[in-house]
């Protein structure tokens, strides 16, 4: 039946391109090219994705994929979802090949589902359903009842095209303003029209999770952008200023952070009183061709094309810091590939994580004995100046999100690879001679990708040579300075204790200063955000920078000659693309 094959293709594309299920069903195809009913297709794809962490574990441990060669991992997910979790079961005759391929393993799959449920501390499927949906069982123990979800829907007002005041008087004119986020969260299940203006990020509001603005004119024209609050931290913390050089967004697709950078820069331009103080552009790098297309569409829709230049198929790590185009780069935003462990599965925010089952059952060969851990750890991979392992890649497709079948050993090795790549990206950014500020972020909850990478970067040779340090809490923009969740001090301390050849080496790190400089967001916390980490780096370059007379900043050589890219062309850049 086409429904299951089409749902599987939706999940494959969502995983590969990091795009939303809704956009694939209703925008890309516009509901016309699907053989299945778009509403049924969207519902099945969304629910299967939501349950994929559990179902990947169930299917993977059952060994079904090793027997049924006609089933792909995503096809097995959607069929298993309907078999056990939908009201009507598999919408195919019992004699149909797809139905039979799964149903004949029902006993084994059911046993694995029971084990997966018990491992999550849930007594019933209804209790597990509540947990999957982002709630928890009520204190009175009643099953199947959902606690109010903790995640509102975050809406960024795109100031490139409109203002907060215009939208509150227009799109949200009939809505009620409430003073606390809790009131928005409590209204989520009733779809009450209330909003809360965020106190940390300008031009950001929270609305109930049940509210749908995707059909509104304001959303379709790019006036409103769905973006998690935590995802707004990097651009706001970087705080690009007009007349102070250009910005590189090193890992730009799908474009939310890029367009936010453009809005912040445009607001800075608007505050300038004289034209010669204005200026600055954003250069958005994206290695993957398909994601580059998504990025360009997003930038055009958001009205950011005048300030953002997209360099499609451009691998940032292959752009030499000494390149002519880099002479005016004073700020960099790095949001690299990561484990995605902080994602909360909000499809509309393109934050859904599709977990895939293993094609071979993950069954321990020896029971009752501890497994040996690999010698290599994420911490060991973060030795300054150490070459990254060959497995490190610069593409997200080769660095998939956390999977339910990850063992502790697999996760440790995978985090080591990710952290090595993230450190290499940071060291590359620190080598840009005119750079004065870098913001690094991940949607990960693992310290191996966060505090450990920060300390390793500070202790790297390039950081010492160029004079990089963390952007102290007292130096951060007011909303970020007031954010209450900071870095994990014990993890910073553990990272500072790294040894090279048996002895401690590198830059002395102030554990308190570094941990306070880092910002964290809790996954499933009371702040209504996904799990996230962000930190800023700065260097005091003093007189090594000078105005190039075009509203930017150029690197000044020893003989006083200033280099800039004002009159250059794109040919030098294109030479670095794959």
TrEMBL record:
User: What segment(s) does the record annotate as region Disordered?
Assistant: 344-406, 549-578
InterPro entries attached here?
Answer: MeTrfase_RsmB-F_NOP2_cat, MeTrfase_RsmB-F_NOP2_dom, NSUN5_7_fdxn-like, NSUN5_RCM1_N, RCMT, SAM-dependent_MTases_sf
Q: Where is the composition biased (Low complexity)?
A: 375-385
Q: Which residues form the SAM-dependent MTase RsmB/NOP-type domain?
A: 143-540
Supply the SUPFAM superfamilies for this chain: S-adenosyl-L-methionine-dependent methyltransferases
Keyword list (alphabetical) reads:
Methyltransferase, RNA-binding, S-adenosyl-L-methionine, Transferase
Q: Where does S-adenosyl-L-methionine bind?
A: 251-257, 286, 315, 335
| Segments of skewed composition (Acidic residues) | 395-406, 561-578
Q: What are its GO cellular component terms?
A: nucleolus
Q: Name one GO molecular function term.
A: RNA methyltransferase activity
One GO term (biological process): rRNA base methylation
Q: Name one Pfam family in it.
A: NSUN5_N
Active-site residue numbers: 443
What domain of life does the UniProt record list for this protein's source?
Eukaryota
Membership in a protein family: Belongs to the class I-like SAM-binding methyltransferase superfamily. RsmB/NOP family.
Q: What is this protein called?
A: SAM-dependent MTase RsmB/NOP-type domain-containing protein
Question: Source species, please?
Answer: Friedmanniomyces endolithicus
